[in-house]
Please model this.
Amino acid sequence: MPKLPPDFIFSQASLQDFLTCPRRFYLRYLRRLAWPSAAGGESFEWEQHLSLAQDFHRLAQQKALGISDETLEPLVQKRSTELFEWWTHLCHYWQNAARDVLLGRRYAELTLTASLTNARLLAKYDLLVAHPDGRWSIIDWKTNRRRPAASELQNLVQSRLYPYLLVRAGTSLTGGQAIEPENVTMLYWFTHDPTFPEIIPYSREQYQADEDFLLRLIEEILGRQEADFVLTTDERHCAYCPYRTYCDRPFLPLSELNPEENAELLELSLPPDWEQIGEIEY
Ligand code: SF4
Model:
């Protein structure tokens, strides 16, 4: 059994890392190697994108907490043209969706955790909305330069873990009242395609399937020996991976990759502290 830290909590980032490349999971969470900068000229672009994405998430959080646009907008304008464009899209969506998607009690940057078998799971939500009629919306802001296909989004660990944990651990928000899976919807909103968010409904069948999936995945990780955390056979994932120098993987010029895929690879390379803040215990 691998030696994960005793306080280790599985998140969508760590589980997705394992599915993308078991070696990356090993280097990041078992060896706990520091997050190195990706070597090569592409690292600047990567860091710029990451920094803007983090700024955007902070802005969306501040907006959800009720800080006025008049206060936020001058700061955004100073930061960058791209961020200002994302911000404008967000404000437009906020205004138009307010009567439905955003109507209700809002929880920005909230974290829920729960136990599953002998592991703990964590989800950090960009925005949760508890609607007056008992429905819940999980809203996730995506800054991908390419909108992933619906099937890609549905297959993300995030699309399974987030609704699952809301149903499992959300009673800490409702005073003990159960949240029915049928009342939960996951919504991905895209800075680069702001008019058409991806909406994924949830169900009791899916909740049970997700529990089985998460159980199997965690068992598989905990059952591996160190040597079993093999390198991915899909070397496209190595192009942006900051651990490339540890793996003796050849440098793959970005020009050899499909540019459409670059943003997705960037997203998959987000550092682990991307979703780490305080939590609500279940
Ligand atoms: S460089 Fe490639 S093989 Fe190595 S950890 Fe990263 S994705 Fe995995």
In short: The beta strands are 105-116, 119-130, 136-142, 184-190, 193-201. The chain has eleven helices and five strands. The pocket of iron/sulfur cluster is lined by residues 21, 23-24, 27, 231-232, 237-238, 241, 243-244, 247, 249 (CB under 6 Å). The chain has one domain: 12-224+232-275.
